[in-house]
Amino acid sequence: xxxxxxxxxxxxxxxxxxxxxxxxxxxxxxxxxxxxxxxxxxxxxxxxxxxxxxxxxxxxxxxxxxxxxxxxxxxxxxxxxxxxxxxxxxxxxxxxxxxxxxxxxxxxxxxxxxxxxxxxxxxxxxxxxxxxxxxxxxxxxxxxxxxxxxxxxxxxxxxxxxxxxxxxxxxxxxxxxxxxxxxxxxxx
Length: 188
Hints:
By secondary structure, the chain is of the alpha+beta class. About 20% of the residues lie in helices and about 35% in strands. The chain is built from six helices and ten strands; from the N terminus they run H-E-E-E-E-H-E-E-E-E-H-E-H-E-H-H. Strands 1, 2, 3, 4, 5, 6, 7, 8, 9 and 10 form a ten-stranded mixed beta sheet that branches. It is globular. The relative contact order is 0.23.
């Protein structure tokens, strides 16, 4: 029913925000965001579909255990781009991390990242993001009401998609057909 549809449109941790076709803010145009926090203090999300061309181990030489990690660094969002946010897959939630969705966890803990890298996780299980997206309390709800975002249930397969750059095209709803009305065949 209609209540189910509305319930899905409510932002929450583990939901995905898909930029609508009309959202032209350069920071967020054609982005897909995994919400990792949404409460009365505001919202935090990670842009999951903007991989850089830089190898994570090149960008972060100070994390010595990253040498074996072949994944790229991602642009996670415009806030605190010098800070690192990590998404990874694990059955259990290790110390220093929080479960967001299915088996996906989020962390900003450097020691945990070193542990994960030592375990030899590849980029289908571990992704590193520079920065994140943040909203003040109520701000994201307003942007959704204004039509800036589609809210969809999160899916781990999309977060760790092999072609992260294509995730927006895969998830954005098709454009609304433009209805043309012919009024009794009269032309204005």
